[in-house]
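Title: Comparing notes on inverse folding

I've been comparing how different people in this forum approach sequence design from structure. To keep things fair, I'm posting one structure and asking everyone to reply with a full sequence. Here's the target:
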């Protein structure tokens, strides 16, 4: 992997607006927060104690526990069709974006997991009516890409001091965000975000200049969000197209356009794709089909792979809307061995019994 990048933000993809300065001698402690639609009126946010996880084995799903009660926070979303909220995390904030055609004034809600405060943000713009893709970035900002077919609107939700949270309109994406976006990754410079789009290649957006740049026809190897981690000095995420679900890979951080312009190749030529590595170990523990996986970045080389599997053959629930599931959370650390291979070590896991109410919302997991 390349030499370490000088970061303008903490070891956190989304920055940390307004948080206390951490002790430089102490490792930063993150929380694993899971968002579930496990009650009839909306969503619950749970904080899981990753320090209490056990050494994973072949039988730990038989020791499934219940989630902490009460939840860290509950968010009520009015009934309707659709009534699905979209969640993202940046800094210590969990953002909930909700749009309904008959309620265009529905505000964005920002829950601060560090302070417990809830901020009411601006209404969701009408351009983001098609369940936008939320992309965390430096400085606690969240980008939103319209996922409607043939549209490429880009907006950013950011803190504006006395104005509070506000949306800003940015230059449209140079690709069809509705059908093409495969993955995204925030650069450690705190201002650049990379996007890979099917059939279009890889692009970056610079918040400082407000300009898009094309890097080549190649794509980053991830599925969904990738996270920068300073310990491995690379982007880390779930590998797209892996033979089995939940495989983790790392990828060299691509130089932003300003840095590329200063090298001998020039800033306008297509650049070669970055090198990437697939972790030797298979970290996923859920067995069977109907399994989904998400990777939470816990900081300083630590990650948590969260999986959810439907429980087929389980007793019929009292509430016909309940779908019984098992939620698996596996903590691990990434490092390179003496041969440069990417290895997952110090694995600990826990299994939880959960219930789902909606077929249109799955769940989310964040390291905050």
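Reply #1:
Here's my take.
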């Amino acid at each position: 992997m390349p030499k370490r990048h000088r970061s303008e933000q903490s070891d956190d993809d989304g920055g940390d607006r307004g948080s206390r300065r951490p002790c430089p001698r102490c490792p930063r402690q993150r929380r694993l927060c899971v968002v579930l639609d496990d009650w009839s009126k909306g969503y619950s946010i749970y904080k899981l104690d990753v320090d209490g996880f056990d050494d994973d084995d072949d039988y730990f799903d038989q020791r499934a526990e219940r989630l902490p009660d009460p939840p860290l926070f509950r968010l009520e979303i009015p009934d309707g069709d659709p009534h699905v909220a979209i969640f993202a995390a940046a800094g210590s904030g969990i953002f909930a974006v909700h749009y309904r055609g008959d309620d265009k004034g529905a505000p964005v809600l920002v829950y601060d997991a560090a302070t417990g405060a809830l901020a009411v943000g601006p209404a969701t713009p009408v351009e983001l009516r098609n369940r936008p893709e939320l992309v965390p970035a430096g400085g606690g900002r969240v980008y939103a890409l319209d996922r409607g077919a043939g549209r490429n609107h880009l907006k950013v939700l950011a803190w504006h001091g006395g104005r509070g949270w506000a949306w800003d309109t940015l230059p449209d994406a140079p690709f069809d965000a509705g059908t093409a976006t495969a993955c995204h990754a925030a650069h450690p410079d705190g201002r650049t975000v990379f996007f890979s789009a099917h059939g279009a290649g890889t692009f970056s957006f610079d918040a400082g200049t407000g300009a898009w740049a094309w890097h080549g026809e190649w794509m980053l190897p991830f599925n969904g969000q990738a996270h920068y981690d300073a310990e491995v000095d690379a982007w880390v995420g779930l590998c797209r197209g892996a033979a089995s679900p939940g495989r983790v890979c790392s990828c060299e951080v691509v130089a932003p356009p300003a840095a590329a312009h200063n090298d001998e190749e020039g800033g306008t030529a297509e650049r070669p794709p970055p090198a990437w590595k697939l972790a030797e170990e298979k970290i996923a523990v859920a067995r069977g089909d109907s399994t989904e996986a998400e990777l939470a970045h816990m900081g300083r080389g630590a990650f948590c792979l969260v999986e959810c599997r439907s429980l087929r053959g389980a007793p019929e629930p009292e509430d016909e809307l309940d779908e019984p599931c098992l939620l698996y959370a596996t903590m691990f650390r990434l490092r390179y061995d003496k041969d440069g291979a990417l290895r997952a070590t110090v694995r600990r896991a826990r299994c939880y019994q959960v219930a789902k109410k909606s077929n249109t919302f799955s769940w989310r997991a964040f390291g905050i």
